[in-house]
Specification:
Helix content: 10-25%
Bound molecules: 2-oxoglutaric acid, fe (ii) ion
Radius of gyration: 19 Å
Oligomer: single chain
Strand order of the largest sheet: 1-3-13-9-16-7-6-4
Structural class: alpha+beta
Strand content: 25-35%
Number of strands: 16
Number of helices: 5
Shape: globular
Mean pLDDT: 79
Distance between the termini: 35 Å
Length: 303
């Protein structure tokens, strides 16, 4: 079954408030947050969260203010990230040329497909995940932001046969996805993939997947969900936000759609759309009871 969801409930803030009033409120909120940043009563962790909020309010995504340290290989396997040893001057990025000068509004459109793989393939990828539990590594964000993401990752170089199977399936499906996401067809130059495990307390705060020099050719994000039956965790929903692209930044609006991580289902959405993974509750804390995904990005050619 394919759903293409595009309707919304609530109204956006700027429908209700005048632009000037909204500006005043934004400035006031930033000033309030700024004073908290200087307060000795606030922990460093809370200060970091406030700093992210301020950056978000002024339209800078934490994913964007430093170029990604991910170096995807040409064969499409996502590679482990390496922390940069020191801060170096950022060269004028090529992706400036694709920065949005006029505001572009992205509704939280997505395509959700149930029973994406056969039951045997669904079982096989779970077996792969469980048999390689000791080869997962902690995830990072492109900015190495603290407390922004908690999960572990198995790189696709460790499951090449399943990578190829999934890649073919994704490439077959892509032509029907683009029109539903209001996207022009494009040549997929690379299919990035990783296997991600979220266990008790894991999450991924609001971000988008294509906001840096290394990621701007990502067009479509896909997330294939799988887990043991019966399901042993709760939470872990994906929230997909209405997003405004303005002056090179992606700004999330209040409205979002919720995608449940259902076994053997997949979701596709525009990689520029802001999204987050809500905290997972997995009382047993056993690896095999967690929320698993095969997730990644369909890239366009760089031109
Ligand atoms: O697990 C999900 O639902 C989304 C994961 C995600 O946003 C990412 O890996 O960039
Ligand atoms: Fe993401």
């Amino acid at each position: 079954m394919i759903e293409n969801k595009s309707e919304f409930g609530g109204k956006m803030a700027h429908d209700i408030l005048s632009v000037d009033r909204l500006k005043q409120l934004t400035n006031l909120s930033i000033e309030t947050l700024e004073s908290l940043l200087k307060s000795p009563d606030i922990s460093s962790q809370q200060k970091a969260e406030i700093a992210f909020k301020i950056l978000e309010m002024v339209g800078v995504s934490p994913e964007n203010f430093k170029p990604s340290s991910i170096s995807p290989s040409t064969n499409g396997f996502s590679k482990p990230t390496q922390p940069s040893p020191k801060t170096e001057p950022v060269p004028a990025p090529d992706y400036q040329s694709v920065i949005q000068t006029e505001s572009l509004f992205l509704p939280a459109d997505h395509v959700f497909i149930e029973n994406f793989l056969s039951p045997e393939e669904n079982q096989k990828i779970l077996e792969i995940a469980l048999s390689k539990s000791d080869q997962f590594v902690g995830s990072t964000t492109t900015t190495q932001a603290v407390n922004y993401r908690q999960s572990s990752i198995l790189y696709a170089t460790l499951f090449p046969d399943f990578y190829n199977l999934m890649r073919n399936k994704l490439l077959q499906t892509c032509p029907e996805i683009c029109p539903k996401l209001n996207h022009k067809p494009f040549n997929v130059s690379q299919v990035e993939m990783q296997l991600t495990a979220h266990n008790d307390g894991c999450f991924y705060k609001i971000h988008n997947d294509s906001g840096s020099e290394k990621t701007y050719t990502r067009v479509i994000t896909y997330v294939y969900y799988f887990h043991q039956e019966p399901k042993q965790f709760s939470g872990g929903e994906l929230r997909l936000y209405e997003t405004e692209l303005k002056a090179g930044s992606a700004i999330s609006h209040n409205n979002y759609k919720t995608i449940e991580p259902r076994n053997n289902s997949i979701v596709f959405f525009d990689s520029r759309c802001k999204h987050e993974v809500m905290p997972v509750c997995c009382p047993s804390r056993k690896f095999e009871d967690g929320r698993f995904t095969l997730n990644g990005w369909l890239r366009r050619e760089d031109n």
